[in-house]
Amino acid sequence: MKKVYPWALLFFVLALSACSSTQSLQEYYVDNSENPNFLAFDVPVSILNLKEADLSEQEREAVSALKKLDILAFKKTTENAVAYRSEKTNVNAILKNEDFTELMKMNTPYGKATVKYLGDEDAIDEVIIYGDNDDKGFALIRVLGNDMNPAHMLQLLQAIQKSDYKGGGFEKLEGLLKG
Questions:
Q1: 3-class SS letters over 24-88
Q2: pTM for the full model?
Q3: CB-based contacts of 159, cutoff 8 Å, min separation 6
Q4: CA-to-CA distance for 87 and 130, rounded, in angstroms?
Q5: 3-state secondary structure (DSSP) of residue 96
Q6: Cα–Cα distance between 77 and 50 in angstroms, integer?
Q7: What is the tens place of the pLDDT at every residue in 25-84?
Q8: Which end of the chain is more exposed for a tag (fewer CB within 10 A), N or C?
């Protein structure tokens, strides 16, 4: 029994050191998907109507790497202002993780936005778009795909412009931005 105890203690210490105290972005999505302060929904790539669009070879390559968009948005109200500040702090802590590489920061008419990604710079698996507005709330959009290339992001936007996509699927998010 005495010989087992040191091994169990060593295993426990190693297990604790392997655990990260910072929540992952995926865990954050799952934990808050049922929270009444959040809107959570997925948008499949098919809703963008890109198959019917007249796309160049580069645009088709960019689209083929895309799988889906996961959206999590917090709509701020006077009743949940404290929760908003807490959740905004949580998201910022998650996005400070060194696994995320920043592509750009922007100031828009809707608020501040940051675009980051996970993966290698020539083989991105996930793009994260985080925007916040202290009056309305914040939104996290995860663009999920396989081996996406940052240079393809422009082609992807051009492909969406060529499609007959009318913004369907984003009505819930639009309500957050306008309301």
A1: CHHHHHHHHCCCCCEEEEEEEHHHHCCCCCCCCHHHHHHHHCEEEEEEEEEECCCCCHHHHHHHH
A2: 0.73
A3: 50, 53, 55, 59, 60, 62, 63
A4: 13
A5: coil
A6: 36
A7: 999 999 999 999 999 988 887 776 666 667 778 777 777 778 888 999 999 999 999 999
A8: N
- Give the torsion sign (CA, 40, 101, 105, 45): negative
Per-residue tokens: 158: 């051009």
Q: Where are the domains of the chain?
A: 22-178
The letter for the amino acid at 85 is R
For 38, other C-beta atoms within 10 Å of its C-beta total 20
Whole-angstrom CA distances from 94 to 4, 38, 107, 117 are 37, 17, 21, 13
Tokens standing for residue 143:
């663009």
Residue 137's DSSP bridge partners are 75, 133
> What Å distances lie between residue 116 and 38, 81, 101, 132, CA to CA?
21, 26, 5, 15
